[in-house]
Amino acid sequence: MERPTHKELFQFLDITTLSISDTEDSVRQLVSTVLTYQSKGFVPAAICVYPNFSTLVSSLLRQKPIATAAVAAGFPASQSFLEVKALEAKLAVQHGANEIDIVINLGEFLQGNDQLVVDEIKSIKEVIGTSKLKVILETGALKDVGSIQRAARLAIQGGTDFLKTSTGKVDIGATPEAVQAMCEVVKEEQLISARKIGIKVSGGVRSKEDALTYYTIVHEMLGEGFCHPDYFRIGASSLADALVNE
Q: Is 151 contained in some domain?
């Protein structure tokens, strides 16, 4: 395997701002910075924001090869009414988001209510239509590989397009062990249905070496065909500057 260049790694980034203090001005500044990166040939997969900024980001990215992603459905805790979660996701899409990141209902998952978890994801996938759905497993809150893989299988049953490790809002973010466990489920699903489910690594990915570690896992376990922004993403913000300026 050849090591990807900085620009090749950059194409997998979902450049993200999810701060309690985000404002229209700060989000606008982030988009401006990303477009400066683009002018230098560094083009990320998406910019990921809170759903209320979907209109702003999508308008600033019009005619640009960069997706507008929004967290929704009660991010980051996923502790709300399904009707509220689904409406938030639907509104984000109506306001310009073409990718939606949600958190699996961990409360119901830990209670063993697997079908409810699946049905909730299906409901959200249905209302966002053709927009890409990424389901966050919050792997740092799951205590073993078996739990991670069970959560991954439920997300796939619900119709997710991507499995994502973490919100970045708990102490433990992505780990190689969690990503390997997720890749095993993705490989299993591809053998069963021929469907390719993407992997998004987020939470604590700050350096080029971190990114290369996860790229290598995906490349070795799933193959070159998954090393494309349609199937591999890295949720990061500080990493972008490192790749551009190193």
A: no
Q: Any catalytic annotation for residue 125?
A: no
Cis previous bond, 4, omega within 30:
no
Reported residue count of the chain is 246
How far apart CA 156 and CA 151 sit, in angstroms, is: 9
Q: Which amino acid is at 135?
A: V
Q: Does the annotation count 14 as an active-site position? A: no
10 Å CB burial of residue 171 (0-12, 13-18, 19+) is exposed
Pick the catalytic residue: 101, 125, 132, 210? Answer: 101
Q: Residue 143: inside a domain, yes or no?
A: no
Report how far residue 219's alpha carbon sits from residue 82's, in angstroms, rounded to the nearest whole number: 36
Q: In which element (H, E) is residue 185 found?
A: helix 176-193
**Number of folded domains in the chain?**
1
Tell whether 154 is covered by a domain.
Answer: no
* Per-residue pLDDT tens digits for 10-66: 999 999 999 999 999 999 999 999 999 999 999 999 999 999 999 999 999 999 999
Residue 106 lies in a domain: yes
217: domain CATH number? 3.20.20.70
Q: pTM of the prediction?
A: 0.96
pLDDT at 52: 98
Q: Which of 132, 161, 200, 210 is catalytic?
A: 200
Identified catalytic residue from 85, 90, 132, 164: 164
Per-residue confidence band for 231, with pLDDT thresholds at 50, 70 and 90: very high
Residue 35: give the domain boundaries. Answer: 6-133+205-245
- Active site (annotated) includes residue 230: no
Query: Encoding tokens for residue 117?
Result: 């978890």
